[in-house]
Amino acid sequence: MIISEKMLLENHPYYKEMGELIIHNYKYYYKNKRDGNCFYYAFIIAFLNKIKNIEEKEYKQIINKFIDSYQKVKEIKRKGLYFEDFYEMTIENISKIRKNENDIDFLKVDFNEITAYLKILISTQLLTRREKYEPFEDVDKLAAQVESFYRETGHVEIKALSDFLEIKITILSTLEPNITEYGNNSVCVSILYTHNHFEPLE
């Protein structure tokens, strides 16, 4: 199972290592699978929780980013790159959760399909805006690697996702530095990082 139920942060195994910033601003976390895709699972959970409650104007801006992404991906489509179903499942999941007044049932979320599409968005961002990332990484190599599942996620990939979707991603860590922010947009998702593992905060 990719995700467990929402849990009290004070019951987290690394609670005693968390700084005041985390303890005072967040009450819950979701325990998710530790398999190399954990950043994506954490982002999806935090993102869908955010989508549920943001203003309509902000929601439309974000959903339009996803809709526009289809054409961007299509323009750089590489041989063997399959993405149409991943795109459709991502849009469908986001739209359903936005419209549903009930709490999100994460057991019904298509995590693997959304993860696959987010990875494609990151590789697209790297290849189309390579000047932003080339000082830090071999863009062609990273773009080819990032679409593989079960691969640990680094700073450049997180920044590329934040840049593409124009969503602020805040990583709060039990290690130094305690907080790393990607982007400065009004819509923000918060993710906990502990010992090579990402989990969403609420």
UniProtKB/TrEMBL annotation:
Source taxon at top rank: Eukaryota
One GO CC term on file: nucleus
InterPro entries, per the entry: OTU_dom, Papain-like_cys_pep_sf, Peptidase_C65_otubain, Peptidase_C65_otubain_sub2
Gene Ontology biological-process annotations: protein K48-linked deubiquitination
OTU domain location: 27-202
GO molecular function, one term: cysteine-type deubiquitinase activity
SUPFAM superfamilies (UniProt xref): Cysteine proteinases
Entry-linked CDD domains: Otubain_C65
Coiled-coil region(s): none
Cross-referenced PANTHER family: UBIQUITIN THIOESTERASE OTUBAIN-LIKE, UBIQUITIN THIOLESTERASE PROTEIN OTUB
Name of the featured protein: Ubiquitin specific iso-peptidase
Organism: Spraguea lophii (strain 42_110) (Microsporidian parasite)
